[in-house]
Design goal:
195 residues, alpha/beta, Rossmann fold, 7-stranded mixed β-sheet, 7 helices
């Protein structure tokens, strides 16, 4: 996976590559999918965010907990929020079992961020929003990075947003397609199900 898929795709950050090598991806997929755990999938958001040891990170969309584990391995203090309480509990248990103690899993509306631990040096959103949620911009620390896919339900652009001097500077990284961000500042649940 590292040599054939990630390096070939242009990922050069050795810390991210080491994290992808060390974190057991097969532990984060359902049993029937274990054989496919190392197949080619979207680029790691951790590289785009330039995660540094000691960074406080918010991940929106915990899913299995894999990205949170990568962030923790890179040295971030991770808060990860998942709207599906069953997925959040499963990820919480999995991360604890595997020893990722620097991760707090919260069940809630990620489109509103997680104000109690703000501000964040890094915010990674693993679902597509129609627009950048204002709460996430408000919870971004000075010098912080917000990586989020933005667009319609079929096509998005992965955006890197940097907060400098209180202003947001946005750079488009890649076209992409993510599942919809459901929530108050995302897509209504009924629209997200149409995908």
């Amino acid at each position: 996976m590292i040599e054939i898929q990630l390096r070939h795709r242009g990922i050069r950050d050795e810390r991210v590559l080491d994290a992808m090598f060390q974190v057991p991806r097969h532990e984060f997929v359902p049993s029937p999918l274990v054989k496919a755990a190392y197949e080619d999938r979207p680029l790691p958001l951790g590289e785009a965010a330039d995660v540094q040891p000691g960074d406080k990170a918010l991940e929106v969309g915990t899913g299995s907990g894999y990205q949170a584990a990568i962030l923790a391995y890179l040295g971030a203090r991770v808060y990860t929020i998942e709207r599906n309480a069953v997925l959040a509990q499963s990820a919480r248990e999995r991360l604890a079992r595997l020893g990722y103690n620097g991760v707090e899993v919260i069940a809630g509306d990620g489109s509103e961020g997680y104000l109690p631990a703000a501000p964040y040096a890094i915010i990674l959103v693993t679902a597509a929003a129609p627009l950048i949620p204002p709460a996430l911009l408000d919870q971004l620390a000075e010098g912080g990075r917000l990586v989020i896919p933005v667009g319609d339900l079929r096509h998005q652009d992965l955006l890197l947003n940097l907060k400098q001097g209180g202003q947001i500077k946005t750079r488009m990284l890649d076209p992409c397609q993510f599942v919809p961000l459901i929530g108050k500042s995302g897509w209504p649940e009924r629209e997200g199900r149409l995908m």
